[in-house]
Specification:
6-stranded mixed beta sheet, globular, binds zinc ion, 20% helix, alpha/beta, 2 domains
Length: 310
């Protein structure tokens, strides 16, 4: 994508790189200094000498991978310099602590959106509109077929789905960091009163969010050795990696669902094997990508292509 070596930011086999600052952004391989947009593991690589992120991202990363990483933190909107290049982090609205990263040198501005969304989400700071000359944007859902419904409508649909099967256990699969906390926050606004159980990875992230001041409703820790009758009529939130695992066989009466933007495509919904798909995403849809490009006033726009993971 970005081939001209004179550009401030370029794409290399290790990821996005600012040569003048000798700094990488979410590198794929170990490097000396890495700026990290957010704490999803596909944006983090072990083995870098130094990391820089927001405080929230640093706290979440430490919770996930251990506190021994060398990570410096910076405040949203506060410029700092590396080798004379001005750098600042700005909220991207994707998950707690997520950032767009802006580079400024002489009169030239570059903005890397990282993963971002424009929908309202009370579990993280709202996306900040940042003006730039060059925009490097994610485009996970960069097709006109992607158009998200109101988050509250999806939360009501989930609540209705669970309440329509009081004799079953509803297993809802979603990403442990960001999506799970957003769903819990939205569900708590729908008057959903059933028991909620969360897998350890989600439970741990909920605790971390609460520690960072985000209001997440209390849930029970999911224990697979528990009497299965205790889960009846309730909601169990699990990470997608556990789908089709053998321990799920002990549940006699279940219904399964998957909460992901990909569930807006009927063919993917069918192929996924889940009983129900809820189209909710922490990425911008087509209209919001276009809106973001327009609002940035960028003269040049580059897209990062993501690999579809279900
Ligand atoms: Zn992400």
């Amino acid at each position: 994508m970005i081939k001209d070596s004179s550009n401030l930011i370029k794409y290399t086999d290790k990821g996005l790189y600012c040569e003048l600052a000798d700094t990488w952004i979410d590198p794929h391989k170990p490097v000396n200094r890495a700026l990290i947009t957010h704490a999803h593991m596909d944006h983090f690589t072990f083995g870098c000498n130094e990391y820089i992120s927001t405080y929230e991202t640093a706290m979440i990363l430490k919770e996930r991978i251990g506190s021994e990483i060398n990570i410096k933190t910076c405040e949203y909107g506060k410029e700092f310099k590396i080798n004379g290049i001005n750098i600042s982090f700005h909220p991207s609205g994707h998950i707690l602590g997520s950032s767009q990263i802006k580079f400024k040198f002489a009169e030239e501005r570059w903005l890397i959106t990282g993963d971002f969304k424009r929908q309202k989400d009370e579990t993280c700071k709202e996306f900040e509109k940042v003006k730039t000359d060059y925009l490097i944007s994610e485009s996970t859902f960069g097709l006109p077929i992607f158009k998200w419904e109101e988050t509250q409508k999806t939360a009501f649909d989930i609540s209705k789905w669970i309440n329509s099967a009081p004799n079953k256990t509803s297993l809802l699969f979603c990403y442990s960091l960001g999506k799970a906390q957003r769903l819990l926050n939205e569900l708590s606004k729908t008057n959903f009163k059933n028991n909620i159980f969360t897998h350890t990875t989600i439970y741990k992230m909920n605790k971390c969010y609460k520690k960072l001041g985000i209001d997440i409703c209390d849930t029970n820790k999911f224990d697979k050795t528990q009497d299965i009758d205790e889960f009846k009529g309730g909601l169990v939130l699990l990470p997608p990696t556990l789908y089709k695992r053998s321990f799920l066989k002990k549940f006699k009466e279940i219904q399964t669902g998957f909460a992901s933007g990909w569930m807006s495509i009927r063919a993917l919904r069918k192929r996924s094997g889940y009983d129900k798909g809820f189209a909710i995403s922490d990425h911008a849809d087509w209209e919001d990508i276009l809106k973001t490009i327009t609002e940035s006033e960028a003269k040049n726009v580059f897209f990062i292509m993501e690999i579809v993971k279900l």
